[in-house]
Specification:
Distance between the termini: 35 Å
Largest sheet: 7 strands, mixed
Strand content: 15-25%
Shape: globular
Structural class: alpha/beta
Helix content: 40-55%
Oligomer: single chain
Strand order of the largest sheet: 1-11-8-2-5-3-4
């Protein structure tokens, strides 16, 4: 029975259907929440530094397609896993391009297509396309890896730490504490100061900047949830 369900989940028509439904649900959430921006001129500030690398915590990714505005080219890194296929279908339906592969820079970097994805992201940034990707170490929530820092060093583009939260949501009991945003509430799109990585950054500097990114993402999440009246939720991402 379990194997049958797994095979069904790999069927293209199932993935297309689930991706379509997910995208339309998220669109409904977007249209029925009153979103604010922090800072209010978030786009004007970022525009002077584009293309940028948008970094966010895993589990906070569902509403990220709505951060994009039509005049800005943007793509998102999505894994090649079955769930990633559904996420890619949903993202592309919401007019966000995708780069497929792993953001992991650990022992599984090569096996998961990380090298190819990394090179593709460098090309996209070089072509003036903003790149968005999660910052977590795989399967370790709220601990930033070096992947985003490496991408910033090699591309010369700054990192923009971002959080998107809604006042109504359901938090799942999975490894990344994923948030399912719900309609008919308020929302916040928040960003903090850009993080620049020098092209000659050595291991020590990279580690300092990795920690800075981790702190920035935690801070911006706390800010977003506090503004929505859920200060304790900011501690969970």
């Amino acid at each position: 029975m379990i194997l049958s369900l797994r095979r069904l989940g790999r069927a293209a028509w199932v993935q297309q259907t689930v991706g379509f439904l997910a995208a339309e649900f998220l669109r409904f959430v977007w249209l029925t929440n009153r979103f604010e921006y922090e800072p209010p001129d978030i786009y004007e500030q970022a525009e002077h530094h584009m293309p940028v690398i948008v970094a966010f915590w895993h589990g906070q990714h569902f509403m990220m397609p709505f951060l994009k505005r039509k005049k800005y080219a943007a793509k998102v890194l999505i894994s090649r896993h079955r769930d990633g296929e559904i996420n890619a279908i949903a993202a592309e339906r919401l007019n966000v391009g995708t780069v497929r592969g792993s953001g992991d820079h650990g022992s599984e970097f090569h096996r998961k297509g990380g090298v190819a994805a990394f090179k593709t992201m460098l090309r996209e940034l070089d072509n003036n396309t903003n790149m968005a990707l999660t910052a977590d170490v795989p399967k370790v929530a709220r601990k930033a890896g070096l992947g985003v820092i490496m991408l910033a060093r090699e591309s010369g583009r700054p990192i923009l730490p971002v959080a998107i939260a809604t006042s109504r949501f359901k938090r799942l009991n999975n490894w990344d504490r994923s948030v399912i945003n719900l309609p008919f509430g308020r929302g916040i799109m928040a960003a903090t100061e850009l993080i620049h990585v020098p092209p000659d950054a050595d291991d020590a500097v990279m580690e300092v900047l990795r920690q800075r990114l981790e702190i920035a993402l935690n801070d911006v999440n706390r800010l977003a949830y506090t503004r929505l009246g859920h200060p304790d939720e900011g501690l969970n991402g």
